[in-house]
Amino acid sequence: VVERPMTLSSSEKQNDLVNMVTYYLLKPDSYNDKETFEQNFDRVAKDILNNEYNLDRLIALHPEKREQILARLGDTWKHYRFMLGARMLGEQLFDLNNSGNPDYDGLLRPNEVERNTPTGTTIVDNIDGKASKEVLMKLVKAQFEKIRALVDGVDREDEKLTPELADQLINETEGPVYSQDDETGSNDQETESADFDKGLNQYNLLEGVNKEIRRFLALVKYDRIDPELGIKLPRLVNGDQIFGVLLSVTSDIDVDNIIPHIKTVADSARYDGNIDLADDLKNVYEEIRRKTNIDDATGKPQSSLQFYNMFLDALDTTELDFLVTNVNTSQRKDELGTTTQTTNYTIKDQVLFQDTNRRKGDIIRNMTMRHAASFNDKQYREGIVQDLIVRATKIAQSNFVLEDPISQGAKLTKLTEELHTLMTAVGMNIPKSLVRLSLMAIDRVENNVVHNNAQFEQTVLDHYDHHEQMIAEQSYLQKDFFLSLAQILEKALEKNHND
Description:
This protein has about 500 residues and is mainly α. It has helices at about 10-25, 35-50, 55-60, 65-85, 130-150, 165-170, 195-200, 210-220, 240-250, 260-270, 275-290, 305-315, 350-375, 380-395, 410-425, 430-445, 460-465, 470, 480-499, and strands spanning about 1-5, 95, 110-115, 120-125, 220-225, 230-240, 320-335, 340-350.
């Protein structure tokens, strides 16, 4: 199959491209109000072509991975370059040859698109990518104007950008419908309306947050190691989405621990296998750390204290549909070192309680379905289930879960891995970090054990310390949980045996 460069079939990839161009336009001193939007777009598009989606440059840095890079990024980045106007700038950007036949290399076939006009349908030549670039430019303009209005604290002069308006913007310039391909006997059609709701929805969570914080979170860009290629590639984080995550994970955290807790959650997310979230949160934390020069020993900011306090305020006092549970007063220092007293609220999202009950129901349903589907499997019945019953019973009855003559930390790691594997096998989708936290809490709270902290990794201790309130509320997996789990599994085995 020989494919013409056009737009992308994946809405996620199109969002990535729209966000990248928007990010470049939002960079300090990037956008020139004396120029038209198209002139600004063309200028940053050249920068992106040179610095971001440049296969030649990437391969030159990693020549030993040429084939892997082309297989992983080749088609996508060529699409990106086409839509950014590379052909219009004179680049020899050939049609994509996915046929495996070298005879189709180096082709530039006719590329036409249909456009709806007040007088009917018009065929437009898209051989140089101009029509596709116009589609991209409209999407970027809508995204840019929305974020810029939010960041600058001004209202859009035109109508408010809604998902419906986003669809309208996309559909105003309909996706190109290509003429019949005689060689392949198929029609190549550009996606007409990708799902841009995620990329173009309202930044409701950021409304009302301080202007500098809004700018900081609008679009966060960083480089990270691609898990497939093992090389650095650019990644953009949607600020609205990450702000929602930050609100969620810091809602029960004392204000003085909010910033360090972001790193703790990043470590936990990585431990649980959620690498994207871990990288995003770690990068946000590192940017805050860099901007405020946080002292590693004390965890306190050494500069930009105003920004630091504003960031705390953004996470600690943002008004959502929360249920206030208690009020506490803490002290902070301003730029001059003066101590100020501020009242803050520890809050919980009311939806969280409903979500907890729903998750408990989901766990029970998943266990029931897994048990019904796997009971005839002897390895499941006599191996996995019996093993989990034994381990859960032992935890419930033990006076020292992590007792080990060599390393309590190593015992925790091993037991967590084994328990999480068994629980997953019977349909219990519980984060591994929660299992680890619970084993420590059972010893410290219910067994009154004093652990040797020197035997635990610092990330494990930080994770425990930052969840003191959760532990005090007994929201971890207690001894009773493991006892009930063992009893439920035993009864399930007994019932199936009798049936």
